[in-house]
C-alpha cells in the first residue's frame, strides 16, 4: 500500500438516482484517475436547493448503489452549496472528476486541484434498470433552434431523463446540434428517431407541431410540445384523443404552468385572499428585430401566437375556459403579422385583457384584481419569482418570494417524466381542457386577423 503522501485522491459528486451504466462508468473512470476515490452523494435537501428535480431513490438507496460498484473507497453526503471547496481541502484531494455535461461549471476548483471532465456516457439503455419500475426516459429533440438549445442544459437537472438525440429535416443543423451537446445521434429521418427514443420534445416552428405530434403518437411515443401546441381547437381535440388511444402522454410545454411560484400564485389567488377575482390583466412584450422569425414568418409569426400562450394561460388558469366572447385589436406590419395585440375576454362574472407586443413595449405584469385586494406580479411574471398581495390598507401588503431555478424548462421536463412513469398525475398544472381552450383562442385570433 503506498504511504499516505503518495496516494492520489480523487473526488466526485452526484445524485446517482435510478443508478445506470452512465453512473457506473463515471465512477469506474474516476477511480482510475488515482488510488483513492471519495464519492459525494447529494441529499434531498441539496438537490432541492440546486434545482435537481424528480429524484426518485432515497439517499440511502443512492448511497447503497454507489457502494455496490466497489469503486468508492469512501462515500460522503453532499448537502450544501460550497461543500466541494471544503471537501477538496479537508480530504487533500488531488483530482476532482465529473461528467462532461458539467464542462466548465467547476473550473473554479482548478486553484485547489486538477479538474477532469469525463465524457458523459451516451445512450443509456435501461438494462441496469430492469429491477426497478421506473424507466430512464430516452428523449429525442425535434428541432434544433433557439428553444431546443435551451432545453439541453435544463435536462441534466431532471433525474430519470436522458436526451439521446435530435431530429431536424435539415441534417446539417441536427448534426451540429448533436455535436455541440454530445448527443448520441442526429437524424433527418423520423423513423430512425422513433426507433431510438421513448418520448420527444417538439421545439420546431408552430405550424409543424400538428404533424410531428400525430406521427410521434402513432409511433407510441410520449410528446411534450412547445407552445402554442396547435392553432386549431379540432386539432387539439384529435391529438388528445389519439394520445389516449395510444396510451401516450401529450403535454403542452408552457413553462409557466409548471413553475412552483406560478402554482403557488394560483393557489393563493384562488384561496380567496383577495376575495372574488373580477379582472385579470396579463402582458408580455419583447421588442424584436425585424429580421427574426416572429416578425417575418407570415404563417407562424406575430405577437399573439408568440406570447399569447403565456398571457392567455394566466387568464384561463384564474378565470377558467368558459369565456363568452373574445375581441381582438391588433396593429399589423405590412406583411400582415400582428406587432401589438390587445385581447378582451368576457366571462360571466369577470373580464380579462391580454397584451402582447413585438414592436411596442408595455409593462410585462400580471395583475389580478379582487373584491378584497389585488395581486401584482411584476415582469417576468411568467417566471413567477415573486409577487405582492396588496390591500386597501397597504400596511397589510405581503410580498411573496418563490424559488425559480435555471431558465424554467426543467419544471415541465420533470413533470413530463414523472407523468410518463405514472407516479405523478399533475394534470392540474395544465389540463387537456385548458390546452384545447388555448388552441381555440389561437384559432379565433388567426381567423380574426385574416
Ligand atoms: N453521468 C454520465 N453519463 C450519464 C449520466 C450521468 O457520465 N449518461 C455522470 C454525470 O456527469 C455526473 C455523474 O454521472 O458526473 C452523476 O450524475 P447525476 O447523478 O446526474 O449527478 P449530477 O446531477 O450530474 O450532479 O454536486 C452534484 C454534481 O453537480 C453532479
What is bound: which ligands? [cytidine-5'-phosphate] glycerylphosphoric acid ester
End-to-end gap: 80 Å
Mean pLDDT across all amino acids: 94
What's the β-strand tally? 19
Name the CATH architecture of the largest domain: 2-Layer Sandwich
- Spatial order of strands in the largest sheet: 13-14-15-12-16-17-18-19
Instruction: Decide which structural class fits the backbone.
Output: alpha/beta
Number of helices: 14
The CATH superfamily of the largest domain turns out to be: Dihydrodipicolinate Reductase, domain 2
Low-confidence stretches: none
Number of domains: 3
Shape: globular
Rg (CA only): 24 Å
Within the CATH hierarchy, at the fold level, what is the topology of the largest domain?
Answer: Dihydrodipicolinate Reductase, domain 2
| Major pleated sheet | 8 strands, mixed
Please bin the fraction of helical residues.
Answer: 25-40%
Strand content: 15-25%
| CATH class category name of the largest domain | Alpha Beta
Task: Map the helices and strands.
Layout: E1 9-14, H1 21-31, E2 36-42, H2 44-50, H3 59-69, E3 74-78, H4 83-90, E4 95-99, E5 114-118, E6 137-142, H5 146-155, E7 161-167, H6 171-180, E8 185-187, H7 190-196, E9 199-202, H8 209-218, E10 222-226, H9 233-245, E11 250-253, H10 260-270, E12 277-285, H11 293-296, H12 303-319, E13 325-332, E14 338-346, E15 351-357, E16 366-370, E17 373-377, E18 386-391, E19 398-401, H13 409-420, H14 432-449
Helix pairs in contact: 8-9, 9-14, 12-14
The structure holds [cytidine-5'-phosphate] glycerylphosphoric acid ester.
